[in-house]
């Protein structure tokens, strides 16, 4: 039986910010389909940074479109505005339809025909655009504004969005210059080439928070795949990851099957299901207990029932069940009731951006579970020594360990005894 759960966890700016900070990356780029919430999340992230002790307002650029007419660029700190694109019916692309009045992002609607078929019954339109770059707008405001952003005292700069116009390439063999005084004499595509170079220079000296149009264009691909970029695709934020919920403990110190013990009105195992819900492409509970297996199956989660004695058996059985379809795998204890779903999501986001690392949560200097292992580690996890779990690999590869801070130390607290359960309930 294959479990093909789709990501349903709704990302928050808090989760994204914690993930980005943990990643060690310099820049944060949001991408995704129209109406995926990119601009809203960027605004929330900027508000979060603005609430910190920063020396000055965050500079940046915002672009938007009047569908079928023009595209405009605004420098956020000065409010200056210029036209950087004009609608040209002769250009290849799809005919632009007027957007609905409630449309949250007319910029993207202005670029492609996203509303001609509200029922999504027609085949998708060809990629194209009918906006022609306006060289004067890039010259008089766009390029100088990027320069002022680079010279500002702010650590961060915001760009919303980098899209089709900025990605147009010069097909001419004529040389070009970055001197703004001569830019008016350049072709439109040469001005956008200069604009792209200014963005590259900006990324060398500042940290960028940006929305990037989701389209297969060379410059957009270049930005999204830089090694110093934390990329968040809101359409598939967690990639294809697996999750094994470890529920095979016999409960000797607890005095029985602790997984079904009541904790604040729900079985202990229920909390592991809730913390991992909606994030993983494959998820399975590995257990020795008939009652636990029946419990999770009733909730639509796959269970693997076994009678093998060791921890390495649980790891091997779970990983064998999910490893064919995934790029990484989280091993989550079934007895950690205060683990937050947002923490699990942050581990997953970082695993997508740091595919070769082992990710685990931390409170101050105390590391804990769950732990998310990358695909290169799967053969090693499948052949662990008898009685060993994932900690065997963690000790063997300390340089591969990366940490995501948790908000509360009790997130990392597991239940070994009834006293542990009572302590958490009172706390």
What does this molecule look like?
- There is one protein chain.
- The protein is an alpha/beta fold.
- The chain has two domains: 14-233, 3-Layer(aba) Sandwich (Rossmann fold); 242-426, Spore Coat Polysaccharide Biosynthesis Protein SpsA, Chain A.
- The protein is built from 14 helices and 18 strands.
- An eight-stranded mixed beta sheet has the order 5-4-3-2-6-7-1-8, sandwiched between helices.
- Helix 1 (13-23) packs across helix 2 (38-50).
- The two termini are 40 Å apart.
- Residues 1-7, 95-127, 171-176 and 181-185 have low confidence and may be disordered.
Key phrases:
427 residues, alpha/beta, Rossmann fold, Spore Coat Polysaccharide Biosynthesis Protein SpsA, Chain A, eight-stranded mixed beta sheet, disordered N terminus
Short description:
With 427 residues, this protein is α/β, with parallel strands linked by helices. It has helices spanning 13-23, 38-50, 106-111, 135-151, 180-183, 188-205, 218-224, 268-276, 290-298, 311-322, 341-353, 378-381, 391-396, 418-426; strands spanning 27-31, 60-66, 70-75, 81-87, 131-133, 156-162, 207-212, 229-233, 242-247, 262-263, 266-267, 282-287, 302-305, 328-333, 358-363, 366-367, 371-374, 401-405.
């Amino acid at each position: 039986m294959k479990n093909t759960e789709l990501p349903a966890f709704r990302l928050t700016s808090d989760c994204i910010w914690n993930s980005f900070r943990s990643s060690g990356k310099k820049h944060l780029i949001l991408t995704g389909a129209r109406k995926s919430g990119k601009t809203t999340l960027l605004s929330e992230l900027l508000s979060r940074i603005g609430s910190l002790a920063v020396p000055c307002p965050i500079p940046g650029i915002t672009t938007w479109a009047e569908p079928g007419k023009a595209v405009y660029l605004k420098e956020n700190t000065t409010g200056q505005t210029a036209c950087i694109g004009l609608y040209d019916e002769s250009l290849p692309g799809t005919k632009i339809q007027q957007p609905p009045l409630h449309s949250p992002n007319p910029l993207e609607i202005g670029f492609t025909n996203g509303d001609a078929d509200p029922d999504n019954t027609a085949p998708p339109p060809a990629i194209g655009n009918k906006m022609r770059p306006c060289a004067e707008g890039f010259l008089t405001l766009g390029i100088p504004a990027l320069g002022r952003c680079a010279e500002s005292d702010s650590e961060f700069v915001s760009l919303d969005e980098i899209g089709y116009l900025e990605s147009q390439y010069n097909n001419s063999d004529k040389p070009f210059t970055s001197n703004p005084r001569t830019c008016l004499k350049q072709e439109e595509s040469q001005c956008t080439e200069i604009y792209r170079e200014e963005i590259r220079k900006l990324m060398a000296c500042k940290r960028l928070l940006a929305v990037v149009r989701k389209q297969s264009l060379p410059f957009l691909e270049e930005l999204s795949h830089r090694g110093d970029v934390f990329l968040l695709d809101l359409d598939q934020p967690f990639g294809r990851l697996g999750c094994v919920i470890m529920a095979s403990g016999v409960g000797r110190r607890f005095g029985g099957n602790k997984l079904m013990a009541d904790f604040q009105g729900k079985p202990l195992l229920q909390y592991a299901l809730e913390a991992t819900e909606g994030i993983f492409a494959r998820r399975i509970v590995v257990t020795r207990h008939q009652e636990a297996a029946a419990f999770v199956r009733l909730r639509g989660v796959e269970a693997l029932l076994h009678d093998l004695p060791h921890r390495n058996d649980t790891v091997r059985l779970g990983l064998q069940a999910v490893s064919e379809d995934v790029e990484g795998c989280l091993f989550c204890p079934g007895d950690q009731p205060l683990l937050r779903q947002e923490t699990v999501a942050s581990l997953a986001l970082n695993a997508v951006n740091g595919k070769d690392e082992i990710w685990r949560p931390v409170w101050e200097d105390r590391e804990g579970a769950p732990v998310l292992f990358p695909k290169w580690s799967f053969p090693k996890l499948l052949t662990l020594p008898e009685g060993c779990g994932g900690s065997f690999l963690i000790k063997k590869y300390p340089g591969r360990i990366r940490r995501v801070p948790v908000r509360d130390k009790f997130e990392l607290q597991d239940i070994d005894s009834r006293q542990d359960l009572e302590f958490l309930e009172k706390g």
